Amino acid sequence: MPIYATEVLTNPAPAAVCVSRDNFLILQIMMAATALYAFPSLRHLPGWNTGGLAVAALLHVAATEPLFYAAHRGFHGAHLFARYHALHHSNKVPTPFTAGFATPLEHLVLGLLMALPLAGACAAGLGSVGLAFAYVLSFDFLRAMGHCNVELFPGGLFRSLPFLRYLIYTPTYHTIHHTGKKANFCLFMPLFDRLGGTLDPESWELQRKNRAGMDEAPDFVFLAHVVDVMQSMHVPFVMRTFASTPFAVRAFLLPLWPIALLFMFMVWAWSKTFIISYYHLRGKLHQIWAVPRYGFHYFLPFAKDGINDQIELAILRAERMGVKVVSLAALNKNEALNGGGTLFVNKHPDLRVRVVHGNTLTAAVILNEIPKGTTEVFMTGATSKLGRAIALYLCRKKIRVMMMTLSTERFQKIQKEAAAEDQQYLVQVTKFQSAEQCKTWIVGKWLSPREQRWASPGTHFHQFVVPPILGFRRDCTYGKLAAMRLPKDARGLGSCEFSLERGVVHACHAGGVVHFLEGYAHHEVGAIDVDRIDVVWEAALKHGIRPV
C-alpha cells in the first residue's frame, strides 16, 4: 500500500535557481554527446560485452555508491541543504518524478557518479552500447522506484534472504529519509548506511508492514470494482497524477490500452481483492478495495459465482482484520447477484463486520435534490431497490409518482406497501408518452435518445442509473449520479473516485461512512428501509458530509 512522507519543508527552495523535472535527462544527453565528441572510439563500441558489465558493477559498488553517500550527507549540511537540496525535499509526498527534481549542481554530481562505471568499463576496453543503455536506464529506474511511494518488494523476501537488506533499498526505506532527513542516505545499497551509522533500525519492519498493509488496520472499507479497461489505469499505483483528477478518456491512454487489456486478463485469472487507495477521517483509516473484476464481468452468467466468492473472501478478510464496516459499491451489491448483500449476511450470521449497501443515503440524496413544491414525478427503474424506496417515500409526501414498468405484479407489490391513503399517488405507466407534461424525471434505467425526446423542454433528469445516461437534450438539464462531499477533516485524499472530484464520493460510499461514524450495529442489506431515509440523511449532515 502507499506510504506517505508527511514532513513539511521549513527551508525554502532557492528562488534564484530555475529547475525542471527533466533537467537530468538534458544533462545526461549533453554528457553523452560530449563523451562521443571527445572520444571518437566510443562511436564504434560493440553491442554487448559481458566483461564490461562485471567491471561496471564492481565500480558502482566500490566508487559510485560510497561517493554518492558522502555527497548526499554533504548536501544535508545546513548551508548546502538550504541553498540546493531543500528543493528535492520540497515535495511533501514523493513520486517517481521527485527523483529528477533537483538543482543543476546536484544533477551534475549525480551524472558524474553515474558515468564512473561506464567510463571504467570503456577504459578497460570492455565498454558496449548495451551496457550504456542498461546501466543508465536501470539507474534512473531505481531512482524513480525509490521515490514511487508504493511498496513493491514482498516483505518475506528480506526475511528469507536477510543479506538483501544491504544490497537494495525499497520505497519505504527512502521514504523514511524524506520524512526525517536524518537517516537512510544511500543511493541504492543500504550497506553504506550501515557502515556510516545512518541506517534507520525500523526500516525493514516498516517495509514489511507497508507491504502487508498492516501499518494500520482499517476501520472502514469501501469495496469497489473496476469499471472498464480505460478506467483501470485511473489508480494511484499506475498514474498518480492522472488518478488525482476526475476520470475522463484521454488521448495518452490509447497507446496503453493493449497493455491494460493484457493486465485485465491477468487480474481475472490470478488476482485477489487489492487496495486502491485510502484516507483518514476522525483519526480512523478508511480504505478503498477493489474486487478484481470489470463491469462487463457482472453481466456474464458464468461469472456470478466467482464474483460472489471474491466479495465473500474480501468480507471475511475484513472480519479478520477487525474492520467495522464494509460498504459494497455499484455492481457488488446487485440484487440479481447477491440480493444487495443478503447472501453474505445469511451465509455468515455471526459476522462482526457490518455489511452495508449504502443505498439508503443514495435514496436520500436523490430525494433531497427534488425541488420543493414538486407535485408529480416520472420514474424509470421504478421497481428496483432504489426505485421502490423513492416511490414509497414520495407517495408519503403526497407526490404523484408515475412508475414506468411493464410488470403489474411488481408494481402492485410495491403499491401495497404504501399506506392505504397514499396508494393513490402511485400510478403504473407503460409508455413514455404518459410523462410528456412532467418536468421531473428520475432515471433508474437507461434512456435512449428516442425515449428522452418524450420529455418536455425544461425537464430535469435525476439519475441513479449506472452508467449515467448521455445528455442528448439541450433544452433539458441532467443531474449527475448521487454523490456527497466528505467532511473537511478528511486527510490523504490524493485520488479521485472515478469521475468525481477529489473529496467527493458516491452516495453509497458516503452511506457506509455514516454507518461507521454512527456506530450502527445492523447490516444494511436487501431492501431499503424507507423509515430510515431521513434518519441517515440527518446523520450525514451532522457529521459534515454534505451534498455536492
Describe the structure in brief.
Keywords: Endoplasmic reticulum, Lyase, Membrane, NADP, Transmembrane, Transmembrane helix. This protein is an alpha/beta fold. It contains 20 helices and 14 strands.
Question: Which short descriptors sum up this protein?
Answer:
548 residues, alpha/beta, Rossmann fold, six-stranded parallel beta sheet, five-stranded mixed beta sheet, 20 helices, 14 strands, elongated, disordered N terminus
Please, could you describe this protein's structure?
The protein is α/β, with parallel strands linked by helices and 548 residues long. The chain folds into 3 domains: 14-212, no CATH class; 220-356 and 502-547, no CATH class; 361-481, NAD(P)-binding Rossmann-like Domain (Rossmann fold), CATH 3.40.50. Helix content is 41%, strand content 12%. It has helices at residues 23-38, 50-75, 78-85, 104-123, 129-146, 155-160, 171-180, 191-196, 203-212, 240-243, 257-270, 304-321, 335-338, 342-347, 359-369, 385-396, 408-417, 449-452, 507-518, 533-542; strands at residues 220-225, 274-281, 284-291, 325-328, 354-356, 376-380, 400-404, 426-429, 440-443, 460-463, 477-481, 483-485, 504-506, 546-547. Strands 8-7-6-9-10-11 form a 6-stranded parallel beta sheet, with helices on one face. Strands 2-3-1-4-5 form a 5-stranded mixed beta sheet. A 3-stranded antiparallel beta sheet has the order 13-12-14. The radius of gyration is 29 Å and the shape is elongated. Mean pLDDT is 90; it is low at 1-20.
